Amino acid sequence: MQEKGSISIHTENIFPIIKKFLYSDHEIFLREIVSNAVDATQKLKQLASMGEFKGELGDVRVKVSFDKDAKTITISDAGIGMTGDEVKKYINQIAFSGATDFVEKYKDVTDKEQIIGMFGLGFYSAFMVAKEVEIVTKSHQEGSEAVRWVCDGSTSYSIEKSDKEGRGTDVILHIAEDSEEFLEEHRISQILTKYCKFLPIEIVFGTKEETVKGEDDKEEKVVKDNVINNPTPIWAKSPSDLKDEDYLAFYRELYPMTMDEPLFWIHLNVDYPFNLTGILYFPKVKDQLDLQRNNISLYSRQVFITGEVKDIVPEFLQLLHGVIDSPDIPLNVSRSYLQSDANVKKINNYISKKVSEKLQGIFKNDRPSFEEKWESIGLFVKYGMVADEKFYDRAQKYALLKNVDGKCSTIEEYKAQAEVNQKDKDGNLVVLYANDPALQDGFIQAAKARSYDVVVMDGVLDNHFINTLEQKLEKVQFKRVDAETADKLIDKDEKLESVLSEDDTTKAKEIFEKAIGDSAYAVSVDPLATDDLPLSITRPEFMRRMRDMQRQGGGGPMAFMGSMPEQFTATVNANHPLVTKLVKAENEDEAVALAKQAFNIGLLSQNMLSGADLTDFIKRSVELASK
After folding, report:
1. pLDDT reading at 117 higher than 80
2. Does 335 count as an annotated binding residue?
3. In a domain, 246, yes or no
4. Does 98 show up as a binding residue in the annotation?
5. Is the CB of residue 430 less than 8 Å from the CB of residue 452?
6. Any idea which UniProt keywords this protein has (predicted)?
């Protein structure tokens, strides 16, 4: 018996579009065909569990093989198979999904979500790489005859009887010349590992040699089928059935080249109002500038979809690692990427909420551990507080400020302790911070001498985080510890008396302006504490912050302000003995030399002295020490 006919083509499923343009990446063909085989196997297991299939299941693994000489790739399953009529219905009528039919028939079955279901459009992805496709199949139904279907990629096909004995389906792809890269073992293995690593039915590809202990504990080598997937990933299991070592082992499975263990993880497991499972890991942060996105993989019923999760995962959490699996995420017809809808937004919000709850739980139950990990955790928390209003509201309860001595405080705790001594004349709480504690140590020590506390803000996001806190917190200002001299950092309207007369003050200003010789430095002579430097270099907080943000890629006004010429204030300490000495000096050159030395000390304290100026400073220091 042989029958010939034409595949039904409708305006909504034009065959050339499916064949040429539906899939952006040709390698997806293997994912689709293997997924169909898994689908057919799942259906058979479902029928067996319901008592509608009474035969022996036997070996239900899906097998992938290739023949380089014959230029074929074969995907075989022992699933439900198809009758001749079913082949005509599900294969010839494009976009008529067998899974849709099956789900409708068994819509009351509780685990129907395990059915992958895309037999129809997915099958035709084979023609992106194959010049001809064969289907040899036999239904599980008793008394069924096997059939062989052949199509060369046109709308013509042939179907005839086959001598296949066992149930199931073999899909044989005759690879086209321009796609022979897919006949290489490593290429097939790479695709299977990428897309099918966690499919729920074992996938066999080739064999592997293992060393086992035989009789008398002697080691011997045996050849076994090479199963390329883990059909029961932990995200599909109940959290109550898992231990810490299970999560750590799975992390190593996902990222075999990563040496560090994650800080902690969140197991997502919800079935209403949408179905979502997954594991999100918080990685240990070594270098904030070297964090990579795209470490979260999106799956749909254990089929890999994409590594791009920008819509479903909040932006600030895309630096996490892990897996998300949901059948409720709307995918484009080729299952290559997700499409936005209300469910995507709900899932996005849910993930943000679950992460916040996890962090809140750790903070509440084990604050010492939370503080210990804050260097890594803080990056995600700060990013979230800057990017997401709802997350800010949740996270402000456990976000920490860490001072230069390593003490951690929540925002409210810090406000309570700092307002005792760090309020200015207008009632503003001034939070002093250092972005480079080692470099700014002199300024930190001067602040500490006045009983001020200094927090560390040295992360890549801290400029944005500071701006967010200033906008959210009432009457709170942040000021970098080297933005002013110590007595001016917090303006309490308290002024020291100057030991210089008005004429001496004017003379000192003139001497320093001559010594500096640079209009970028505005010279100011002010009475400061005698233990302050003779001259301090500061940059206005606003201009400095704009320049820092511009360097990090800020646009608009930030870019404009950041590109303006540098402006500094050179504050001369009127009460320092050195200043008194140079004002009283009879030799003007000697006075200018002392002023130059004081200016260089100010530059050195800000790490702004280098090159020839640094060399000259060292020479002058040696000469002065020798006198």
Report:
1. no
2. yes
3. yes
4. yes
5. no
6. ATP-binding, Chaperone, Cytoplasm, Nucleotide-binding, Stress response
Q: Does residue 199 sit in the same domain as residue 246?
A: no
- Is 32 known as a binding-site position? yes
Mean pLDDT of the chain: 85
Q: Are residues 403 and 326 in the same domain?
A: no
* 24 annotated binding-site participant: no
- Report whether 164 contacts 170 (CB < 8 A): yes
- Alpha-carbon dihedral sign for residues 624, 447, 445, 449: positive
Task: Please tell me the distance from the alpha carbon of residue 99 to that of residue 105, in angstroms, as a whole number.
Answer: 10
String of b and e for 254-291 (b: at least 16 CB within 10 Å)?
bbeeeeeebbbbbbbbeeeebbbbbbbbbbebeebeee
Q: Is 146 a domain residue?
A: yes
Of 324, 349, 369, which closes a domain?
369
Cβ(559)–Cβ(495) below 8 Å: no
Does the annotation place 169 within a ligand binding site?
A: yes
By residue range, what is the domain housing residue 69? Answer: 2-206
Q: Tell whether residue 82 is among the known ligand binding residues.
A: yes
Residue 21: Cβ-neighbour burial (10 angstroms; 0-12, 13-18, 19+): exposed
Residue 481 exposure: Cα atoms within 13 Å on the Cβ side: 30
* 3-state class (DSSP) for residue 139: coil
The domain spanning residue 447 has which CATH number? Answer: 1.20.120.790
Question: Does residue 310 sit in the same domain as residue 193?
Answer: no
pLDDT in tens, 581-627: 999 988 998 899 889 999 999 898 888 888 988 998 888 888 777 76
In 3D, which of 316, 325, 323 has the Cα closest to residue 359? Answer: 316
Where is average pLDDT lowest: 1-15, 355-369, 466-480? 1-15
pLDDT tens by residue, 533-556: 899 888 777 777 676 666 655 544
Is 36 annotated for ligand binding?
A: yes
Asked whether residue 290 is marked as a ligand-binding residue, the answer is no
Distance between CA atoms of residues 57 and 79, nearest Å: 9
Q: What is the pLDDT of residues 417-433, one digit of tens each?
A: 999 899 999 999 999 99
